[in-house]
Write a structure and sequence with these properties.
This protein starts with 7 loop residues before the first strand and ends with a helix. It is elongated, with a radius of gyration of 26 Å. It has two domains: 8-206 and 327-391, Crotonobetainyl-coa:carnitine coa-transferase, domain 1 (Rossmann fold), CATH 3.40.50.10540; 235-316, formyl-coa transferase, domain 3. The chain has 395 residues and is of the alpha/beta class. A six-stranded parallel β-sheet has the order 3-2-1-4-5-6, with helices on both faces. α2 links the parallel β2 and β3 (69-72). It contains 17 helices and twelve strands.
Length: 395
Amino acid sequence: MNPLAHLTVLSLEQATVLPYFTYRLVYDGARVIRMEHPVYGDPNRLVGEPLPGQERMNQYFLCINAGKKAITLNLAEPEGQKLLERLIQELEVDVFATNTMPNKYHKLGIEPERLRAIRPELIWLGVSGFGPEHPEAAYDPILQARGGLMELTGEPQGEPQVMGIPLPDMGASEHAYGLLMKALYLRERTGQGATLNVSMFASTVSWLTVPITLSRSFGHTITRRGNTHQFFAPVSVYPTRDGFVYLAVGNDRQWRDLVKIPEFSGLDRPEYQKNLGRNRDKEALNMAMAAITSEMTSAELLDKLKSINLPASKIQTVPEVVDDPLVAPTLLHSRDPQTGVELTLAPPPYSTPFLEQSGGELSFPPRFGEHNAEIYGRLGLGPQDLDQLREQGVI
């Protein structure tokens, strides 16, 4: 059973935060139609290397847009707004989503009150940097900076660093996904739609559970700690003869098991029996650990650590992650029927009936305005109508 197979999502989307949200809905088998301005389009279409001979189909865009359909529509034109209203009504759209800045809602005719008046059961979802009351521009690294993530990322004496993934973008997408699931449940119970607003900044700060409580309630200074842990030791990256391994001793029992391994037995000291003592002498302990681990290969060290069930891993490159036996079977794929280009896509967080039925295959990311004829054809518009709308700059 695929519970979202009949869900229709119309999304005025660009960049990462909303396209990733609708991509999550693609996993569920929802029908996702992305809307773009007929001239400017999604800027991410032009990021990264272009596919040879393909306009506005650059590599960066391909990562989170498979499985969708794409139309163009100029909502700054009155005729464009009329078409939007017809799309919502005649396609029986369940979800309208946008990550347009809130101060542009009125100009584009996409205010929740206006669209939900057309279709009361519509779920209207807006994602913005700081919420509808604060229409400031925001990009993911700006939110990382203001939201405290950069202050917590990097070496203790080094500069603040951005994270390796865009957590404000993707985290807000996940929070939006959860809100939508609740709204769909309530609509099923009541028949009523909803207006949902997601602030990327609020989403970002919500991850700071430990830092905020310990800082404000108990006066702790919470800042960058590199690869170590503020409260547990030894927890860090340690060198080996052929790479690096991250290991984490999370309790005193694990420590007792570790120092029973002959190579680590010299660290079996009274002051290290409790985590508090190990944590107080973290710097010296980590130096001693590194001296031991550097004499072994990564495989030798991991064998010893896994023999006592201690959590540890080598630092894998992205290609190594893709080849990991737990990852390789879950990867998604997409093939362009026009050019033969094949995409390997990141695995979903969990499988869904739709992905199982499709064998993990998604349709190729849509070309700019690729589905105009199909989607507008459902409104009864033929080739001549579409040509006229193009000449008027509406699509």
